[in-house]
Write a structure and sequence with these properties.
Layout: E1 4-13, E2 18-23, E3 27-28, E4 32-37, E5 40-45, E6 49-51, E7 54-56, E8 58-59, E9 64-68, E10 78-81
Antiparallel strand pairs: 1-2, 1-10, 2-9, 3-8, 4-5, 4-10, 6-7, 6-9
């Protein structure tokens, strides 16, 4: 697996295409990530993210961030930075 795990998806809001990511590493807008759950995986660049409903450029370990995702994701999906 290329990249370092930065967190795990804790929730997905399908109506708005937003995932909640619990971070165990720092993440910033512009980073490229890979989301993996069993055989399903996809990559995307982070275009925006929110912490407690406020736009942020950088989120740190321990934060729960909301981010718009290109595809549906499942709870407990692992997220890697590329």
């Amino acid at each position: 697996m290329a990249g370092k795990q930065v967190g795990t998806i804790s929730h997905y809001y399908d109506q708005i295409g937003v995932a909640v990511l619990d971070l165990n590493e720092t993440l910033k807008v512009g980073d490229k990530i890979k989301i993996v759950k069993e055989e399903e995986e996809f990559e995307q660049e982070i275009s925006s993210m929110q912490v407690e409903h406020k736009e942020v450029q950088t989120a740190k370990k321990g934060d729960s961030v909301g981010l718009k995702v290109d595809k549906e994701v499942k709870r407990k999906s692992k997220v890697y930075i590329l």
